[in-house]
Amino acid sequence: MEFLSDIADNIHRRGLTVAAIPFLLFHKPLNVVGSNLLQMGEFFLDNDPVEIFLRRFLGSKYTHELLVKTMEKRRAIDHLVELLEAKV
User: Fold this and answer.
1) Who has the most CB within 10 Å: 22, 28, 84, 86?
2) CA dihedral of residues 44, 30, 3, 81 (deg, nearest 10)
3) What pLDDT band is residue 15 in, cutting at 50, 70 and 90?
4) pLDDT tens digit sequence for 48-79
5) Alpha carbon distance 79, 83 (integer Å)
C-alpha cells in the first residue's frame, strides 16, 4: 500500500525508525479504536488538524478519509512495522 510505504519512508527519513517500531507494536490493539475515533471526530469536530498533519507529513495527496480507511484494517500496523523493519 502506497500510503503506508510513504509513512514508513517519512519515519525513516526523520531517523525515528527504531523508536517507531515498539511504539506501533505497543499500540497495535488500538488501531481500530483510533480509526473509529478519527471517524467520529469528523462529525463532532473539524478534521482540519488531521488534514494539516497529513499535508505536512506526507503531502497533499493523502486525506483524512484514507487515513481512517487504512487504519481500520487490522493488518495495517503489522504491514507498517514490516516496512520499517526492512529499512533498519
Assistant:
1) 84
2) 160
3) very high
4) 777 777 788 888 888 878 888 888 888 999 99
5) 6
Compute the distance between CA of residue 52 and CA of residue 1 in angstroms, rounded to an integer: 22
- Contact of 63 with 51, CB cutoff 8 Å: yes
pLDDT score recorded for residue 37:
80
Q: How many CA atoms lie within 13 A of 3 on its CB side?
A: 17
User: What's the pLDDT score for residue 78?
Assistant: 93
Cα 50 to Cα 63: distance, rounded to the nearest angstrom: 8
Q: How many residues does the chain have?
A: 88
